[in-house]
Amino acid sequence: MASIIKQKNKYAVVYNYKDPMGNTRQKWETFDTNAAAKKRKAQVEFEQQNGTFIVPTATTVADLLEEYCYVYGVNNWAMSTYNSKKGLMYNYIIPLIGDVKLDDISPRLMDKFYQSLLSVKTKVVNNKQPKSEFLTAHTVREIHKFLRSAFNQAVKWELMSRNPVLNANLPKEEHEKREIWTAETLLHALEVCDDDILSLAINLAFSCSLRMGELLGLTWNCVDISEKSIEENNVSIFINKELQRVNKDALEALDNKGIIKIFPRTLSNTHTNLVLKSPKTKTSVRKIFLPNTVAIMLIGRKKQIDEMIELFGDEYINNNLVFCHSSGRPMEGQVINRGLKKLIRDNNLPDVVFHSFRHASITYKLKWNGGDMKSVQGDSGHARMDMVADVYSHIIDEDRRFNAQKFDEQFYKAKGLRGVEEGKTAPMPKYESAIEMLDITAVSDEEIKAEVEKENPEDENAALLAKLLANPETATLLKVLAKSL
What we know:
- The protein is mainly alpha-helical.
- It is built from 20 helices and nine strands.
């Protein structure tokens, strides 16, 4: 029997068959219309029943990717990963090389494909304007990772003899430095912020190292701000879900895997749903302890929501969310982002994105706890400790200046080096200028010694240098070192 699976604006006919070795295989064939798919389905079933069926050998990149997403992706990907992979597939891969036969795919063709992607315009997804006009090297590398995995699967399925992108030439990715506010700037921003929701969001993201989705998915049953907990400095939140907007196709394909709650759509014509879902990794599920100051802010927020529930009565949609609209509906990240942009614009603050508060949180925690990455990882929810070290290795300017000051105090001034006084620059020893005037590789040791003594008759350092030059082996070594400089 064959079946038809709708994939966005395509229709796939899926059926099983026996290969020459007697093994059961699955085949996908993609069609533009439902009518064409139904016709092919009937043909496959008729030929299989009558023993006249022959498996088509012409498999395209589009056929492979459709099958790969359905067979491999559905079982192995989280909702967000499925969304992003399908987006890359339909927006940038299938339109360009979808019709290419797998037999015609070569390393040379794929290198050209990757290079051409840099001149492809970025698509608008979910009405969000792209950050750049054309695809970036980072996106090209994401496409490569997707194709590399798909072609690996094709080799396992014996559709290809080798993976054509294993040694691909990829565009170099330039990693931009993540800007974060200093502690002073953050404190000033919170002082001038008159948006209670934004202020609470910034404080929680900074003190708890939260992602935006984790913040917006926080519910009151996961918040412990009791009087006893505050007295014992034991207030905490429990992160076990996140708010995310996902495509309806992904929900259907993954059979609501990992979904805790699907919120009703406010617009009937939208192709997406807001959901509460389980985190992508186990380490993202975590308990985070709060500063009492932030706990008091949460108490104020709970009081506001209780007042709204009383005001709206039965009209209030109680989703038990900490961050919600006055009606109780879930609040999306764009609301927080708009508020942050306004705060920055109105107060002439350095331009940062909301995610920078998570980076700042991890950076300052590492600074304040002496580099205890394990405890910071417990707050951030990173799967691996090296991700904390690699991604968040910010060097704060004030620390770098402090390092220079400590060098000055602990080494130069503490050792009482001659000429090092407060507010003065230590003069260069005269014997260095004398040696610079000489071609040290062309004169004798005695000539160098005499020149040094002549330039610095009373200098202890000069006397020491002259003594060193009196030893032929030491003099030779010094000349070699001087030549290398």
